[in-house]
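Hi U.,

Before I forget, here's the chain from the pilot set. I'm dumping it here mostly so it's searchable later in email.
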Amino acid sequence: MVEPEFEEQLLGLSAKGKIVVGSAVGLFGIVATAMLWDAGFVGGSMAFTAILGPVVAVGGVRDLRRQRLFEAEIERAKSEWEQLRIDLFTARRDGQNVARHLQARGYRDFHVRRWIAAELDPGPIVPIDLQFEFFAKLGIVCNPGVTTEDLEDHSPFDECERRPFGCLAEVLAAEIQREPFTPIADRLWLCDVECIEGPGSYVRVLQRLARMVGGELPISSIEDHVDQPESGHGGVAWVRFRCRGELCHWGLGVDEDWLDTDVLIQFAELLERSGSDLRLFANTSDYSQEVFLAVLTPEHRREFVTRTRIELEAMA
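Structure:
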């Protein structure tokens, strides 16, 4: 939290500085004018100094009062910081102007209001229904049986509204947190790459990928083999299946319980060769040991990235 600074003017003098300098200049002007007057001279410049000094000093008093009010507003804001955060979210959600909301709460200084807004304003609130409509246009919809509770198990809707599109995209890429732990939306998958536990692991991976593309790749008869030696390295793994009558057999590497991401590349290439408009895209860098996968058309991928700010690169 970087606090704003009180704006000082008049050659950078502080409020107290103006009072001291103005008083000194005014006193000097008065004394000098009196001396010159007694000597029979008209000291216009000295008279001007005698007037200017008090003006500067009065300005300093006024600025000192403003500075104290400014500092009091800063301390007040810090004391009710969390309540301000909630209030600004509510104001945004209800379509209110944040600056006017802060004015109504008694924050009179522009710089203080600007500081609070910069620190706490959540930005435009996008209603959750509009976000669902956007994803639906890209072919990303919740599976039957997914409930509001299933979605909010991952992130409350008010959080999704504060971080529009990106937050909800991550929720849609997850699984429901109850039996049978099925995907929330087929087209997105937040894939944990530390998922190879032995035979059957790559069967589950292929089943999930096939689910992402729907009927674009009719995959059947999936089998796999995973030989994990005690060292965790140097084993043998493969997966094979049938797709449109063709037998596909992919050899894979073994590295402890880590997924060989070559399976994703080969699947993306198979999808591209099929003539489908859909492509497999991935973000492999922003989710620690997870990979964010999305099946979209190239045009929908651009819209997805623009709205969610989740970068996606083609896997093939």
